[in-house]
TrEMBL record:
Glycoprotein is among the record's keywords: no
GO MF term list: enoyl-[acyl-carrier-protein] reductase (NADH) activity
Annotated source species: Roseivivax jejudonensis
Protein name listed in UniProt: Enoyl-[acyl-carrier-protein] reductase [NADH]
Top-level taxon of origin: Bacteria
GO terms, biological process: fatty acid biosynthetic process
Similarity remark: Belongs to the short-chain dehydrogenases/reductases (SDR) family. FabI subfamily.
Catalytic residues as annotated in Swiss-Prot or TrEMBL: Y146, Y156
InterPro entries: Enoyl-ACP_Rdtase_NADH (IPR014358), NAD(P)-bd_dom_sf (IPR036291), SDR_fam (IPR002347)
Gene3D superfamilies reported for this sequence: Enoyl acyl carrier protein reductase, NAD(P)-binding Rossmann-like Domain
Length: 264
């Protein structure tokens, strides 16, 4: 443990269970002395999220469906009752109908395209608007993205298009909020077996491919992601904004199958 986040207050959005990327980040932040609040999507998740929050000493656990402006407003209204200021926010939320996370991108429906962009892209902007209003200089906003934004990945489809837009929104918000000393970054995580990932077609194959072909010859863990998130959320990242930081065991630098990788 360390004191990197001592005296800092942060809101973690997107915790579903102990496999969630949000959980790896929350653990790293709590271990570094941060005080945390959590939001969860619906009643069904509350019974999973509340005990996890409590295990990190947090009792601020609030509902928020990011597809609903009134629900986002209610979250921040409630948060302000506990805290008068905010130092960081983690947005670990994405959604697409899983029927379109297989097959061809070109077949994406308008309805799912718009919903995926709404939940996976606009929600980070909507939340950052409200969070930044509670932040002082030194504030940090972080979202989660994937390499499917930059390169075509099988089955990632509309989520790849959404993540590309999310990364662009990070750059625009970094410029908008930079003069107030608020930083905005994206962490591009390698594949991790989570609830959201289980909706992606052939995810097992993607995991295996990354394990065999990334320079570190393994997959990342939520611990790896948590530690790198800590750098971006804490004062260690004070000069970093608008960045998409890869935490993927180096996979994004690779141009070809590794020489020692067996056929799978
Ligand atoms: P997860 O299923 O644990 O988390 C996804 C979260 O999104 C859940 O908590 C869910 O409740 C929330 N969510 C979805 N729709 C919502 C809505 N309308 N309102 C509020 N919350 C909503 O899965 P995860 O893999 O930890 O996903 C977290 C983030 O990490 C996502 O943005 C995902 O795209 C990204 N990511 C995941 C991987 C991976 O391989 N797992 C890799 C790179 C990036």
């Amino acid at each position: 443990s360390n004191t990197l986040m001592a005296g800092k207050r942060g809101l973690i959005m997107g915790l579903a269970n102990d496999k969630s990327i949000a959980w790896g980040i929350a653990r790293a932040c709590a271990d570094a002395g941060a005080e945390l609040a959590f939001s969860y999507q619906g009643d069904a998740l509350k019974k999973r999220v509340a005990p996890l929050a409590e295990s990190l000493g947090s009792s601020v656990v609030l509902p928020c469906d990011v597809g609903d402006e009134a629900s986002i407003d209610a979250l921040f209204d409630e948060l302000k009752k506990s805290w008068d200021s905010l130092d960081f926010i983690v947005h670990a939320i994405g959604y697409s109908d899983k029927s379109e996370l297989r097959g061809r991108y070109v077949d994406t429906s308008r309805t799912n395209f718009l919903n995926s962009m709404d939940i996976s892209v606009y929600s980070f902007t909507a939340v950052t608007q409200r969070a930044a209003a509670m932040m002082n200089a030194g504030g940090s906003c972080l979202t989660l993205t994937y390499y499917g934004a930059e390169r075509v990945m099988p089955h990632y489809n509309v989520m790849g298009v959404a993540k590309a837009a999310l990364e662009a929104s990070v750059r625009y918000m970094a410029e908008d909020l930079g003069r107030d000393g608020i930083r905005v970054n994206a962490l591009s995580a390698g594949p991790i077996r989570t609830l959201a990932a289980s909706g992606i077609g052939d995810f097992r194959y993607i995991m295996k491919w990354n394990e065999l072909n990334s320079p570190l010859r393994r997959n990342v863990t939520t611990d790896d992601v948590g530690k790198s998130a800590l750098y971006l959320l804490s004062d260690l990242g004070s000069g970093v904004t608008g960045e998409t930081h890869h935490v993927d065991c180096g996979y994004h630098i690779v141009g070809m199958k590794a020489p020692d990788a067996p056929d799978i």
